[in-house]
Amino acid sequence: MQIIRARVLGMCMGVRRAEELAREAATKAFQEGSRVYTYGPLIHNPQAVADLESLGVHVLDAKAIETGTGELPDLKNAAVVIRAHGASLAALSRLHELGASIIDATCPRVIKSQRLARHYEKLGWQVVLVGDPHHGEIAGILGHTSNALVVDSPKMALQMAEKLKDHPCALIAQTTIRQEDYDAVIEVFQAHVKNMAAEKTICPATRERQRALIDLCGQVDAMLIVGGKNSENTKRLYASAIECGVPAWHIETASELKTEMVKFARIGITAGASTPDFIVDEIQETLSNMV
């Protein structure tokens, strides 16, 4: 059996930077006898979160911080790493009030989206975020505006566009959605809204992983998609593999490998933007040993 990796896979720049900052904070906290936390799970990958936990990097309840409800540990003089998805202005203010030292690991591309949202809102435009309303990035950008709206499908976009047809609208996409999904929403707004703008905010890493996956599907007999089951971009990679018509599996760890996978002559591997290198290496090694 031949195992072929996608030409682009695994952790993107933003996630890798966030993990590095968290590890640096953990080392410093150990030396100083202090504490370090992350604003919600730093990465959409349980194994990576567990690895950081073993270093003393604990996860804070982002919702408790955002709403000011629920129990939180004493954060005075503790370091809190903001994940690549970013955080709302209310959450950042709350952390300051609690005495935390903030390490901002927000992805630069997400920061750009936050700034664009504030910019258009100041101009009086209706900001429309395109993506998953429950995703941390979208929640964070919402928290940088006062009345932004969210759409997650062309059907929902149509309902919204018809109501906003006489109001200038600015579309800002979640950095990790598929370009095709964003384009479908843009098309709806262009057909119904007189004055609109669609910002190019999708991260190239998302497109690169999608393109690399599609290219690889044409070279292999089956695909393994590696990443957290709670990772949206990993789930989209899996969906794309299925659309390509090849047998595919979405797995988190080597323990999920099945004997049926080794019956293929050529099997491809790709990984979501929050998947650590060590997990991909472990899966490839285990798969090789199963032959």
TrEMBL record:
Q: Which residues bind dimethylallyl diphosphate?
A: H44, H85, H135, S231, N233, S274
The answer to keyword Oxidoreductase applying to this record is: yes
Which residues are noted in the entry as isopentenyl diphosphate-binding? H44, H85, H135, S231, N233, S274
Names of required cofactors: [4Fe-4S] cluster
InterPro entries found in the cross-reference section: LytB/IspH (IPR003451)
Query: What keywords would UniProt list here?
Result: 4Fe-4S, Iron, Iron-sulfur, Isoprene biosynthesis, Metal-binding, Oxidoreductase
Molecular functions (GO terms) = 4 iron, 4 sulfur cluster binding; 4-hydroxy-3-methylbut-2-enyl diphosphate reductase activity; metal ion binding
Biochemical pathway: Isoprenoid biosynthesis; isopentenyl diphosphate biosynthesis via DXP pathway; isopentenyl diphosphate from 1-deoxy-D-xylulose 5-phosphate: step 6/6; Isoprenoid biosynthesis; dimethylallyl diphosphate biosynthesis; dimethylallyl diphosphate from (2E)-4-hydroxy-3-methylbutenyl diphosphate: step 1/1
What catalytic activity does the UniProt entry give for this protein?
isopentenyl diphosphate + 2 oxidized [2Fe-2S]-[ferredoxin] + H2O = (2E)-4-hydroxy-3-methylbut-2-enyl diphosphate + 2 reduced [2Fe-2S]-[ferredoxin] + 2 H(+); dimethylallyl diphosphate + 2 oxidized [2Fe-2S]-[ferredoxin] + H2O = (2E)-4-hydroxy-3-methylbut-2-enyl diphosphate + 2 reduced [2Fe-2S]-[ferredoxin] + 2 H(+)
The free-text note explaining how the cofactor binds reads: Binds 1 [4Fe-4S] cluster per subunit.
The enzyme's E.C. designation: 1.17.7.4
Q: Where is (2E)-4-hydroxy-3-methylbut-2-enyl diphosphate annotated to bind?
A: H44, H85, H135, T175, S231, N233, S274
Gene3D superfamilies according to UniProt: 3.40.50.11270, 4-hydroxy-3-methylbut-2-enyl diphosphate reductase, catalytic domain (3.40.1010.20)
Pfam name, any one: LYTB
Q: Name one GO biological process term.
A: terpenoid biosynthetic process
- Give the active-site positions: E137
Q: Which family does it belong to?
A: Belongs to the IspH family.
Chain's role: Catalyzes the conversion of 1-hydroxy-2-methyl-2-(E)-butenyl 4-diphosphate (HMBPP) into a mixture of isopentenyl diphosphate (IPP) and dimethylallyl diphosphate (DMAPP). Acts in the terminal step of the DOXP/MEP pathway for isoprenoid precursor biosynthesis.
Identify the PANTHER family for this entry: 4-HYDROXY-3-METHYLBUT-2-ENYL DIPHOSPHATE REDUCTASE
Name this polypeptide is given = 4-hydroxy-3-methylbut-2-enyl diphosphate reductase
Q: Report the source organism.
A: uncultured spirochete
